[in-house]
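Hi U.,

Before I forget, here's the chain from the pilot set. I'm dumping it here mostly so it's searchable later in email.
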Amino acid sequence: MLENKKEFKLITKKNPKSLLPNALTIFGVCLGLSSIKFALDANYGMAIIAIGFAAILDTLDGRVARLIKGTSKIGKELDSLTDVISFGVAPGFIIYFWTLNEIGKFGWMFVLIYTVCCALRLARFNLMIIEENETWKINFFEGVPSPAAAGLVLLPLILSLSGIVQFENYTVLSSIAILTTSILMVSKIPTYSLKRILIPRHLAIFLLLGIGVYVSLLIFYTFETLFFSGLIYIFLIPISYFHYRHKNKTSLIANSEEETEDVL
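Structure:
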């Protein structure tokens, strides 16, 4: 008798459109692993650039999947596994090869803590359920997302490469950055979800202009631009926290008023 075997399929016959977003996700894995190779070769500039492109692809794959209606369950799981590699494992290795290896076992322990926190953060994200009356919450993440966390962990290295300020001991700075970022990832501090931002059509021209200016700055002042982008994100964390509290308070008041009307 022939046994029925379930074949593993990256692309189903019912949804062939998932090929493009899944391909972007796999390309992100390759970039994450390549950044480790660059770090092994002490080419830290290229390592950061590879992580940056992986973050761009992480933003695009979900948008492309929704745009062409090519979302799939395997795409969601693949995206999470990619994030662990590109934004959990890779940044930890890069910062370890650069400076944390100087403190021996403690440096490696910091890398392990960061990677585990990244995996826990992604597992929690996959299980997150938003109620129908709280759709506004899709504009926020619970904790710092893994791509942003990768940028925060690499911020001391980016600062060093930018030449803006030079420190004698980057090991302490890197240790503080990786431990603080690990806590922020598994915390419940709300942060802005940049993937969900909707721009009104009449403002699209200004968005394109801003993107053009930003890309130009990245080309000519790569690490300086990345460093100040990281600082801006850090300042946005408390802003997003208070914005979330305000929205949550408004939502609770509206829901209580609706319940009161139903009783009456």
